[in-house]
Design goal:
Shape: globular
Radius of gyration: 15 Å
Order of helices and strands: EEEEEEEEEEE
Distance between the termini: 21 Å
């Protein structure tokens, strides 16, 4: 389980710079996932269930904010979006809080070529911010290896 601790502008592709393992109420089994510059790589092949969550806040009338999960099976040369979710809103007065989350399955057949990344994006105007946290799971990824490929 990984969480994002900063609160930058929502438009981040990939969301990078402030990832940490959940060190409050979780411990990995085995070597666990690796992260570098927002790119997550797998420790072993298998079928994975991936959960993602993106909380955000805005004080403007941005029309949506969303989370987009991408994977690569060719060493990061190309990424394919394979899941997204977003919160849509308009004409907000005061601060608006929202979230985008989802879950997918991925069959990782080669640990040297498969990776995933999470994008955060908002519509125009783009005055939304990611709501990171270093003690709670407000923005993050959870990887569960379900079994062999």
């Amino acid at each position: 389980q990984w969480r994002f601790t900063a609160s930058p502008s929502v438009n981040q592709a990939p969301l990078s710079g402030s990832w940490e393992r959940n060190d409050t109420s979780f411990d990995k089994v085995g070597s666990g996932m690796s992260e570098s510059s927002g790119i997550f790589t797998f420790p072993t092949t298998g079928i994975y269930h991936i959960f993602y969550q993106l909380n955000y806040y805005t004080q403007s009338t941005a029309n949506y904010a969303g989370a987009y999960l991408h994977y690569s099976s060719n060493g990061g040369s190309n990424y394919t979006q394979f899941s997204y979710s977003y919160d849509q809103f308009a004409y907000v007065s005061g601060t608006h809080y929202g979230s985008a989350d989802g879950n997918v399955g991925l069959d990782v057949t080669n640990t040297s070529t498969y990776s995933v990344k999470l994008h955060a994006q908002a519509g125009s105007p783009t005055n939304a911010n990611v709501q990171g946290n270093s003690t709670q799971q407000t923005v993050g990824l959870t990887f569960i290896r379900m079994g062999d490929t």
